[in-house]
Amino acid sequence: MLRYLPDRSAGGSNSRKKEGSLSIIPWYLLQEGTEQESTMSSVSAYYNGKTVLITGATGFMGKVLVEKLLRSSPEVKAVYILVRPKAGQSMQERVANMLKCKVFDRVREDCPNFHEKIKPINAELTQPKLAISAEDEEELLTRVNVVFHCAATVRFDEPLKHALQLNVMGTQRLLELARQMQNLEAFIHISTAYANCVRKCIEEIIYPPPAEPQKLFDLVEWLDESIIQDITPKLLGEWPNTYTYTKALSEYLIQQEKGNLNIAIIRPSIVGASWHEPFPGWIDNFNGTSGIFIAAGKGILRTVIANNEAVADMIPVDVAINLTLAAGWYTAVHRPKNLLVYNCTTGGINPFFWGEMGQYVMSTFKRNPLEQAFRTPNAHMTSSYLINQYWITVSHKAPAILYDLYMRLTGRKPRMMKIINRLHKSMTLLQYFSTQSWNWSSDNMNMLMSHLNTEDKKLYNFDVRQLHWSEYIESYCIGAKKYLLNEDMAGIPAAKQHLRKLRNIRYAFNTTLLVIIWRIFIARSQMARNIWYFVMNMKPLTKGSLSLHDLGRPQFIVKYVLSHCPVSTVLSAISILLLAMRQLPVINLNYRVSNVKV
Ligand SMILES: CCCCCCCCCCCCCCCC(=O)SCCNC(=O)CCNC(=O)[C@H](O)C(C)(C)COP(=O)(O)OP(=O)(O)OC[C@H]1O[C@@H](n2cnc3c(N)ncnc32)[C@H](O)[C@@H]1OP(=O)(O)O
Ligand SMILES: NC(=O)C1=CN([C@@H]2O[C@H](COP(=O)(O)OP(=O)(O)OC[C@H]3O[C@@H](n4cnc5c(N)ncnc54)[C@H](OP(=O)(O)O)[C@@H]3O)[C@@H](O)[C@H]2O)C=CC1
Description:
The chain is an alpha/beta fold. About 50% of the residues lie in helices and about 10% in strands.
């Protein structure tokens, strides 16, 4: 039996959906669809009364998961979270701080005692037995019904040994624990859509791993750290970084060691700020595109290596979490025979491109500027390495050097070059993703959606056809301003005033620079002097003296324009033209050429 999903163009607000793309769902994945008719949310009802274990709850996605779970299923019995002490803070202090976070404001309002449901467990995923005490382990083994495994290192430059210990061995240890759980109904692992980024078309299956995990474990066990560092590029092969490499390994390991567990793997692409929940634009870290948006909004980032036409596969964090919770319910209730992989992506359903993203980000930050911007936001994308290097020198390094010089002269600590170097490091690591497109199939996501009833579809919405990208990016940028940089929207008029001040400084600077260059040029080149005298000695034309024949001769056009328009207007027009051609920064001259003495 084959079932076709309805045409997804219905109800979507984005006009660029793929035409008539019908997804074929394997019959064995389809149930009778009894949930379809119900008016109660099956997903939320499922979690009520259940005990859930979450790793990575202090992270970006983990926090949204905890919040949504507690808000949508207020009768959930308990939410165990595995937390490690960090940066001089005990596990209890960290959890107390986490619960104060803005992301929990909505659930705090709905259920003020939500924190009583959260049961923190001291754990360290890189340690044997996850460093969980025997007493805590006993509690988990007897109580937990669903596991969500979000913890990972997401750094692209993580040393291989640590990435393996956390992303692969940590997963193995958690699986071992899960296999002993007496009441476990589902185990959901968060992977990444880029785990198999060495392929262009990525199906919802587990691919052969880049290496045998056990062999790598043995290798890193006895090899010296520096040797591992040296051989890492060889081991990675085609994989661009240790993050995607270890994520691919952990998927394979799960398939190998899952035993009788009901497991699903969620593969989100680039997780961005929330679309709707708990607040539009909520974001709490600089990973993925967020740091780049802010650097562009601050006017520090001027050039980016990206392919305008490549798909920017972003997924809002609340969409990824809604899918994760729905997949948890489906895995536990429907118990599919095979491990299901859900590609949680947008590119095949509602594509969005890096070029569009750049435009939306720039226009949002021009309308809603960040406070104390370094320069007016004006970042451009190029796929040319040489052009990028040119703009890096002219627009990143030169202003940073000047600014740091100014800081030194005024007795302050220079910092701009450091920021620029860090930015270049991240851009180098990110460009692999911003210059290529991938095709992810999303049949399982569609299948899951078809199993949700009307209420579930509203409460756990992951229908990305409804995503309107320009609105989303605007809310993302404003969210970054509010939640990441803690800036008040009331400060926008002052921020706009600051941008006007920066623009005037730029005009003055460019004018001075142009005059200096022109003076040097005139002083050193006879030809430049001749041109200058020629232009200066041209007599103004009288009205009607320009014939049709003259119009074809460039010197008459120059003469005519100069005699009829003020010089500053002509220069401004030229500078705007140059700016449009991306040849030179804008030049706004407000003086008459005749005043300049050569
Ligand atoms: C116009 C737009 C066009 C867009 C044009 C294309 C973009 C193209 C994106 C592709 C995106 C692919 C995404 C793959 C899909 C996954 O699966 S994503 C998984 C997500 N993982 C990541 O994104 C990790 C990437 N980041 C890294 O690997 C590391 O952060 C880097 C880039 C190596 C930098 O390392 P680092 O120099 O050691 O800096 P790091 O320790 O990260 O940060 C130091 C401090 O600076 C802060 N910081 C970092 N960045 C910033 C910033 N920008 N501003 C202020 N503070 C910052 C940090 O929060 C941190 O603060 P503390 O925690 O110390 O208080
Ligand atoms: N963000 C994204 O764009 C994407 C993320 N993903 C995946 O989603 C998951 C969550 O990512 P995200 O929330 O962004 O990542 P974060 O870096 O925000 O969170 C990572 C979490 O893992 C925990 N953790 C790290 N090391 C350990 C350890 N040794 N022991 C116990 N816990 C540890 C962190 O705890 P602590 O606070 O103590 O550091 C934190 O809670 C990851 O599996 C990631 O691969 C997939 C695609 C894209």
